[in-house]
Design goal:
- The complex is a heterodimer.
- Chain A is built from 25 helices and 23 strands.
- Chain A is an alpha+beta fold.
- The longest helix of chain A has 32 residues.
- In chain B, a hairpin with a 2-residue loop joins strand 2 and strand 3.
- Chain B has a three-stranded antiparallel sheet with strand order 1-2-3, covered by helices on one side.
- In chain B, helix 2 packs parallel to helix 13 and helix 6 runs antiparallel to helix 12.
- The chains are: A alpha+beta, B mainly alpha.
- At the A-B interface, helix 1 and helix 2 of A face helix 6, helix 9, helix 10, helix 11 and helix 12 of B.
Chain lengths: 674, 374
């Protein structure tokens, strides 16, 4: 090998080395300069996490300041999707600690897959033991961390649940539909009630901690912190004491009807108390109820069964979502349409025969002659024949026009979700719904609130309240004020008039007199009213109206609407018991609530709570003991005093035609929410 | 003493700078790795550097020509060590590369690089001609033996270094360029074609597992498996890209380093770029260029073929490792796990690098007497 030759080859090698190492420098420059920004942000995505600090939702208070919904400190387990599915070992260990099935766990974790670095809550309200276990197993559970979080808390439990609603972990779908930038994958979001309708106020703005983590997801440095902003607080019109009492009294009435009167169908109901001068709802209860706290911590299987798979459907707010035929409570609407269209005057006399004289000759509920009837008496004793004739003279479309003016057929617009519209039948709705042609005989049913008539308890309460104050109908509402946590008023509710009816004073007097008559003790025929037996001895004059709507082969829908005091109306109370005995049997709930609200110390309150157990009184028996006594007394005091609507009687009677029209109706359903 | 003046101080300066740099970068990279002792790896590296310097001095002082009679024995011994690794070696990271030597984990493939250079230098310096294709058969077979053994570990990186050493030494020994291009360029093209055919037409691929192939080729597009085989490359690129022009400094972002695997060994170049940016990375490559230049300069002065081939092989060994290590950190070479000379943490590689420098110094210290040659 000649040195010359070697020299040449060495130069070639040197050139090669310069080229190769120069290429490395070029590549380095490309990475640092051209790709630098992109690579840096990719690095940040790998190691900077924003750990949200959950903002508590706003609190909800009663009118008297009682907390109805608050937050309590808790810890929940969250999962951080690291961009790949958790290994099966991790899943099985987690499911053991959290007492969740692996499949349930997996579905929670994978719900947000494809969007890594979003923490998802896998279990709320951890026990101290679970926290310890998760801590111990941390090295084996790289995606899991424990987060301090406010837990939604409903101190009254089942009481007021339908008004307050519940909130629950947001789903991916909800995250998209709410379009609220404050919501994140681990937010909880209102699902029903005020929690839903005031979601945008109650929702807080999460804070966050920007944390730099290492490859094992351990936080190294806190880069910055943003404090969470709690949601706004709601101050309701709801009276906490009255709400509790309404729930208790309604339950006592249902228990009495079921256990004592053996009315097995009386297993659900609703009651509304509202201010007749403003529309403010003071109490609203629906039974059976549910416990919103179950949703806050995550339903157990048993709780889910109870909430979702019970035939009485506890999640339904019957006060606003269940539309049923209003029965005889509708008669004031028929009366107003007849008076204002000039069909009758307050003194028009119609003979109270046992049956109507036109085909299909429907029965009067009492099936006896009650003498000459005028409007007040016909309302007080709920005379069906009187209203058949009034309906015939007035005509279906006139009745519909005035019923709509009184709020039937339209949701009241109360600040709750899921309110049903009900239905005011006209010729066209009849034909659309039933297929057959309208014929005049159908108006008799409509005139007494049956057939296609559908109304919610909310509509009936609002209508009754408007009757009490001479035709001013307010929009019912629950939220009086919305304030920020620092007390700044965000929303201040003022009463809103939905409609105003101006009727001659004499017409109002007749209607009011008729409604007061309904609570007058005495016999029918005679001077008594349909709910009289349940108001005997009551220290305040109350105006009311019973309703028992019959649907073929279905339990009756029973109602009692009222306002009081009669001379100076303050509040209206409406009660609904589908499957109850008769409308008047719902009246004790109203009596109890007037007693409670006006502090009347009514001695004849058959639903009164059991007196505090003292040794002397326990033997005499408490509430359950007094209820049957009251029932017996009222039952024997007025013979057949309660029924208020046409009786269908047994099949094959001439009333078959009448019931035939209702027979084709869709079954009143509690789920007609909108 | 006049001989001391023949020490290549330029080369020593480069090595010293690289060694000090290695301590700084390893210190920066590993300060969080061992809880409570941030200098754990630095202390060990210091020990290796001292030992390496001593070995370098010893190797530099013995006349390299005295090695010549033992060249094939040295080579043979290293092949035996490689066999021993395969028989009962210690495996880590899926490869069997270490054998226990008292308290130390010895990585024979590192020393095998030196042994191959020494053995080939001896073999090629004794061959009269290499201009015919068939003249190349024996040297290729010679190098193929250790290459096959490290490939079996599997350590593709070292096997490729062996190939590079072989090619450059054949080139320097006088083989025809077109022969080398045909054999090695053609061989490379054949391998690429075969892999292409395997991936597209399912032609069976011998010698290598599917997962190994995937790991090798993922550098072409790390995003096909960002959490698996592409992870290392992505994290290396992120670290390099985060350095910017001048880097983030040695107490730079520790979080980034936790994401970067093998940050004291295979991916130490990414740490250099993170801490010192483009400036630091380019300066480092420049130092290696100086090292290559000094090495080739020494080779140009050596008068005997054995010494010249020895020097060329050693320079090639170091330069190819720089190319492969920096290349894989920057995503232009497959991830094969080759240490960066003088920078990467690790005893075997540091000792090998210093032995190589010792031999290079030796070449200059012992110019020999040309006049005695017949």
């Amino acid at each position: 090998m000649k040195p010359q030759f070697r020299e040449k080859r060495l130069i070639l090698l040197a050139v090669l080395a310069v080229l190769v190492l120069g290429a490395l420098v070029a590549r380095l420059a490309y990475l640092e300069v051209v790709q630098g920004a992109k690579l840096r942000s990719l690095g940040i995505a790998y190691r900077v996490r924003v750990m949200p600090i959950s903002a508590p939702r706003g609190d909800i208070f009663s009118s008297g300041g009682t907390p109805l919904v608050t937050n309590k400190p808790s810890f929940s387990a969250e999962y951080f999707d690291l961009g790949q599915p958790p290994p099966p070992k991790e899943l099985s260990q987690l499911s053991k600690i959290l007492a969740l099935t692996p499949s349930a766990l997996k579905s929670v974790i994978t719900a947000y897959q494809g969007q890594p670095y979003i923490p998802v809550r896998i279990k709320a309200d951890l026990t101290p033991q679970q926290i310890t276990l998760l801590d111990e197993q941390k090295p084996n559970l790289p995606g899991v961390f424990v987060q301090a979080e406010p837990l939604r808390s409903y101190p009254l439990g089942m009481i007021g649940a339908h008004v307050l609603g519940y909130a629950q972990d947001i789903t991916l779908q909800e995250l998209k539909t709410w379009k609220d930038p404050r919501l994140t994958a681990d937010s909880i979001v209102g699902q029903s009630g005020l929690e839903y309708s005031y979601q945008k106020y109650l929702q807080g703005t999460n804070g966050g901690e920007e944390v730099e983590v290492d490859a094992n997801n351990r936080p190294l440095v806190v880069l910055g912190t943003k404090a969470p902003i709690p949601g706004d607080n709601l101050y309701l019109t709801l009276n906490a004491g009255l709400e509790k009492e309404a729930t208790r009294a309604l339950q006592a009435d249902l228990t009495w009807q079921t256990n004592v009167l053996k009315q097995q169908g009386a297993n659900s109901g609703a009651v509304i108390v509202m201010n007749v001068h403003t529309g403010a709802v003071l109490a609203m209860a629906s039974l059976p109820s549910f416990n919103p706290n179950w949703f806050a911590k995550g339903l157990t299987n048993a709780e889910a069964q109870q909430v979702f798979n019970t035939s009485t459907r506890p999640l339904i707010n019957r006060a606003i979502s269940a539309a049923y035929p209003p029965g005889s409570t509708f008669k004031m609407a028929t009366a107003i349409s007849a008076l204002e269209s000039g069909s009758i005057t307050p003194s028009t006399i119609i003979q109270g025969l046992a049956r109507y004289w036109y085909a299909p000759f429907p029965w009067n509920w009492i099936r006896a002659y009650t003498g000459p009837n005028w409007l007040a008496k016909a309302i007080g004793q709920s005379n069906d024949v009187f209203f058949y004739e009034v309906g015939r003279i007035t005509g279906i479309d006139t009745i519909a026009k005035w019923a709509k003016a009184l709020g039937f057929g339209t949701p009241t617009g109360i600040d709750l979700p899921g309110e049903a519209a009900g239905l005011v039948p006209t010729k066209s709705t009849y034909e659309k719904q039933n297929g057959g042609a309208w014929y005049p005989g159908l108006v008799y049913n409509v005139a007494i609130g049956q057939g296609d008539d559908l109304a919610t308890l909310m509509q009936l309460a609002d209508y009754t309240a408007s009757l009490a104050v001479g035709g001013v109908r307010y929009q019912p509402y629950l939220v009086q004020t919305v304030k920020t946590p620092s007390g700044q008023v965000v929303l201040q509710r003022k009463p809103k008039v939905l409609s105003r009816l101006s009727l001659p004073a004499a017409d109002w007097a007749a209607i009011h007199d008729g409604m007061q008559w309904a609570t007058r003790p005495g016999s029918i025929p005679g001077n008594g009213g349909t709910a009289g037996s349940f108001f005997s001895g009551f220290p305040m004059e109350i105006a009311g109206k019973t309703g028992t709507a019959q649907v073929t082969n279905q339990p009756s829908i029973t109602w009692f609407v009222s306002y009081g005091p009669y001379k100076d109306p303050q509040i209206a109370i409406a009660v609904q018991v589908p499957g109850g005995v008769e409308g008047s049997y719902a009246a004790p709930v109203a009596r109890d609530l007037y007693d409670y609200y006006f502090h009347l110390k009514d001695p004849g309150n058959i639903l009164a709570p059991p007196p505090p157990a003292t040794p002397a009184q326990t033997g005499a028996g408490g509430g359950p003991g007094t209820a049957p006594q009251g029932a017996n007394k009222s039952g024997s005091g007025v013979t057949g005093g309660a029924p208020t609507t046409t009786t269908t009687g047994t099949g094959g009677t001439p009333t078959a035609t009448n019931t035939g029209t209702t027979g084709g109706q869709p079954t009143p359903s509690g789920s007609s929410g909108n | 003493m006049a001989r001391l003046l023949r020490v290549d101080f330029g080369l020593l300066l480069v090595v010293a700078l690289l060694s000090v740099g290695s301590l700084v970068v390893i210190g920066s990279a590993t300060q969080m790795d061992v809880t409570g002792s941030p200098l754990y790896y630095v202390q060990h590296q210091v020990q290796w550097l001292i030992l390496g310097t001593l070995l370098m001095a010893v190797v530099a002082s013995i006349n390299y020509r005295d090695l010549q009679p033992y060249a094939h024995y040295i080579f043979g011994f290293s092949v035996l060590l490689l066999l021993a690794v395969l028989v009962h070696g210690h495996s880590a990271l899926g490869a069997q590369r270490w054998i226990a030597l008292g308290p130390f984990q010895l990585q024979p493939s590192e020393f095998a690089k030196l042994a191959l250079v020494v053995g080939l230098a001896q073999l090629l310096s004794r061959r009269r001609r290499l201009t015919r294709m068939r003249d190349l058969i024996v040297p290729i077979a010679y190098a193929a033996l250790p290459a096959a053994l490290v490939f079996r570990q599997p350590d593709l990186g070292t096997a490729l270094i062996f190939v590079a050493i072989l090619v450059v030494m054949l080139f320097m020994a006088g083989a025809r360029i077109w022969h080398l291009l045909l054999l090695f360029g053609g061989g490379f093209a054949l391998v690429v074609l075969w892999i292409y055919a395997h991936l597209n037409f399912h032609v069976p691929l011998p010698l290598i597992h599917a997962y190994q192939l995937k790991r090798l080729l993922v550098f072409l597009n790390p995003n096909v498996d960002p959490t698996g085989s592409g992870y290392n490359i992505i994290q290396s690129l992120v670290s390099i890209g985060s350095g910017g022009m001048t880097g983030l400094g040695i107490h730079s972002n520790q979080a980034i380093l936790t994401f970067l695997p093998e940050h004291a060994t295979d991916f130490i170049f990414a740490v250099v770029a993170l801490d010192f940016g483009f400036a630091g990375g380019a300066a480092l490559i420049f130092l290696y260029l100086v090292l290559v230049w000094r090495g080739l300069n020494i080779v140009s002065e050596v008068r005997d073929p054995f010494g010249a081939l020895l020097g060329a092989g050693l320079v090639t060994m170091l330069a190819v490792q720089v190319l492969m290590n920096a290349g894989m950190a920057m995503g232009v070479m497959p991830v094969v796990g080759v240490p960066l000379p003088f920078l990467s943490y690790g005893g075997s590689s540091i000792l090998t690098d210093f032995l190589a420098i010792g031999l290079l110094l030796n070449l200059r210290l012992h110019p020999g007497q040309l006049t005695f040659r017949a």
